[in-house]
Amino acid sequence: MDTIFSKIINREIPADIVYEDDLCLAFRDVNPQAPTHILVIPKKPISKLAESLPGDEPLLGHLLLTANRIAESEGIDDAFRLVINNGEGAGQTVFHLHIHILAGRPFTWPPG
Length: 112
Ligand code: 5GP
Description:
The protein contains two helices and five strands, in the order H-E-E-E-H-E-E. The chain is an alpha+beta fold.
């Protein structure tokens, strides 16, 4: 499996990277849906959350805690929304697991 996000990890295409460590990468969404819209992705190419394995538990926790730390560093930790679209029917378009961090505007519930 090779997606556009693998190419961003490998620096084959550019992205506005805001955070990187051994396990994950975070970069600004090219088509932002809010004033702050950042994607946090594992370097391991998991296609979607439903394909993750029990052994991925520490990695998934790391992604969530990283998203929170990024929210703090972006100054949006008072109000932000995390989204994981799992599968086409839920709006997933890139099949490399990612957490959307969205902030900077009001959000409605239920989501559209
Ligand atoms: P999904 O719809 O799969 O949950 O989210 C995929 C996200 O990836 C979308 O918000 C889309 O704008 C973003 N995206 C797709 N291609 C690129 C790209 O080449 N660079 C960046 N930075 N974001 C991308």
